[in-house]
Write a structure and sequence with these properties.
This protein has 214 residues and is α/β, with parallel strands linked by helices. The protein contains eight helices and nine strands. The radius of gyration is 20 Å and the shape is globular.
Length: 214
């Protein structure tokens, strides 16, 4: 494990590296340079070398990186050998889409429990995942020892549900609501604002068009 704190931007890139290393291993490729890795994952090679430097000497000058060794190292860093159960709170359109996406086919993640206040969804199975009444959230999360949750509830309910998740012992929340949540320091929140991401994408598209027309 690294001896110093890893920047958040670096941590977010680690799964990208891990996925591509799996592709290389499946293609029977045993060695990769930072330049090759850069071209594949669209991260400049200097950034890749800096990211890797947080974990010590992972490669050799003039040789590059041993794919199998690097994959094994990142598997440990990302805890890929342990299946991680995740809760989903809010079985609306977005929640249902996430349930249909089978995380554990390609990662160590799985949605093992979903929660929704709608009576017609209580105690049903959707996409192979049990849906519990919202009233059972704290009980089920404690019993199933779930450490992370995906939040897809209406914005006005997000903080209330977050407080329940924290009380149940959750330490990480993937927040799809537009609300910025208030949580204790020991709870990590990753905000996913789809509208903001799309608007940012449109901005860059228009900027590129403007440059091309100059």
């Amino acid at each position: 494990m690294p001896s110093r704190k890893i920047p958040r931007a670096t941590a977010k890139r680690l799964p990208v590296y891990y996925r591509y290393l799996n592709v290389l291993l499946n293609a029977n490729k045993h060695r990769v340079s930072s330049t090759e890795l850069s071209e594949a994952v669209q991260v400049d090679s200097a950034t890749i070398r800096r990211d890797f430097s947080y974990f010590g000497e992972l490669g050799k000058r003039g040789y590059g990186y041993d794919v199998e060794s690097l994959l094994k190292f990142f598997r440990g860093i990302l805890n890929q050998d342990k299946l991680t159960s995740v809760a989903l709170v809010g079985v609306g359109s977005l929640g249902s889409a996430l349930m249909n996406y089978n995380f554990h086919q390609s990662t160590n993640l799985r949605i093992s429990a979903a929660f929704d206040p709608k009576p017609e969804l209580a105690n049903t199975i959707k996409s192979g995942i049990p849906v519990y009444p919202a009233a059972e959230l704290e009980k089920q999360i404690k019993e199933q020892q779930i450490d992370a949750a995906i939040l897809t509830v209406p914005g006005e309910k997000s903080q209330e549900v977050t407080d329940q998740l924290v009380a149940a012992g959750v330490h990480g929340i993937l927040n799809f609501t537009p609300v910025r949540l208030s949580v204790p320091k020991n709870v990590q929140v990753q905000n996913i604002d789809l509208t903001n991401e799309l608007q940012t994408l449109i901005y860059f598209i228009e900027s590129n068009k403007a440059r091309e027309e100059e």
